[in-house]
């Protein structure tokens, strides 16, 4: 059945009001015409959200592509990470002003109304440019498929890690013969490690940076430990909430204990505290270049499997094709070639801490020698904890905005874990009944492919 129409006004309302258009400069979206100044025969407009070290690595990768393919002029634009990026991308796709290629967190794909705001990949073109399903982790590849078509071509997975300082942990007698931290397989093991590490600290130093009051990190950490317990969210039909409040309470109690026992100091600048001597911090793998640049001796592992089953929160930066009414021709082929090139030449990207999705890079001896990547990449790839595959999930999505603050309130002690778990279930029930503003359908209707 035909999907309900989606006009620009509905989109603007969905993402926070009509004033968003002006604040994001929608009317001034570039045409990329300046990219043709090079004399190239084909122009490819490419949007991404990478800044800092990631941004520098991405620029280097695009420049390398330009050098090898002088006939394709890439007009690359870096937009503000998070809501501003996804708002502008949705508006551009709805208004037929979309770039030829863009980056998207894989978890956001279901919410972008594949088939309306995203176009599927041409598998023949990907094959032509050397990209095959067999060269990717099967779970990661399948998460990019909607209704039998590939919408997200994975560049990486990026994960939450437990960073530890080797100097402090060595003094505390925590390292093994290889100079690495043994795995904590229970909450007792983990808190025993923290107790020993804390003995090495001066007054005012925290033992673990937990980002206790940050809604995104709070949600990401919850996802990891809740999955370690085998917790679920919704039934297969997306009509009922199956969220386990007992398991959720267990996770929330564990997270709050770090604050209650004085291992985490709420409000600390966690990354800076780690560099200043705190023995542990839970951060994303994107912090690897930052920490390595400071010449601190450290290691990095997936979040500890304290509930018995390894699982650490993971997302994926993936390439997508924003919807174009007239998609095709040289620009479309150029977009496929550029994405394939980036996926296959992601060594610099992997050096920035991300785990490469392309298995030949993941298995490359040069990558396997990188530290601390060689400590976390394989278990992270094998045991990813992802958000539920539903329209309101994904990085900085509605789910994180609604659930993250509830987790944070429990972390810092302003809400009891049991009450927070019940509130989380209530929010999930509210979200399940909501309609995706991108296509007007509930999660159950989207699953069945029916109209509102």
Structural overview:
- The structure is a single chain.
- With 452 residues, the protein is α/β, with parallel strands linked by helices.
- It is 42% helix and 14% strand.
- It has 20 helices and 15 strands.
- Helix 9 (215-228) crosses helix 18, helix 10 (245-260) crosses helix 19 and helix 18 packs antiparallel against helix 19 (417-433).
- The protein starts with 7 loop residues before the first helix and ends with a helix.
Strands, helices and their partners?
Blueprint: H1 8-14, H2 19-23, E1 42-48, H3 52-68, E2 72-78, H4 83-94, E3 101-105, E4 118-119, H5 123-128, H6 138-142, E5 145-146, E6 149-150, E7 153-154, E8 156-165, H7 166-171, H8 187-198, E9 208-209, H9 215-228, H10 245-260, H11 270-275, E10 280-284, H12 288-293, E11 298-302, E12 312-315, E13 317-322, H13 329-344, H14 347-351, E14 355-356, H15 359-362, H16 365-368, H17 373-382, E15 384-385, H18 398-411, H19 417-433, H20 443-448
Parallel strand pairs: 1-2, 1-3, 9-10, 12-15
Antiparallel strand pairs: 3-13, 4-13, 5-6, 7-13, 8-10, 8-11, 8-12, 8-14
Task: Describe what is shown at a glance.
The protein is built from 20 helices and 15 strands. It has 452 residues and is α/β, with parallel strands linked by helices.
Describe the structure using short key phrases:
452 residues; alpha/beta; 7-stranded mixed beta sheet; 6-stranded mixed beta sheet; 15 strands; 14% strand; disordered N terminus
The beta-strand count equals 15
Gross geometry: globular
Rg, alpha carbons: 22 Å
Helix content: 40-55%
- Strand content bin: 5-15%
Mean pLDDT across residues: 90
- Spatial gap, N to C terminus: 10 Å
Major β-sheet profile: 7 strands, mixed
Structural class: alpha/beta
Query: Could you list the spans in which at least 5 consecutive residues all have pLDDT below 50?
Result: 1-37
How many H/I helical runs? 20
Oligomer: single chain
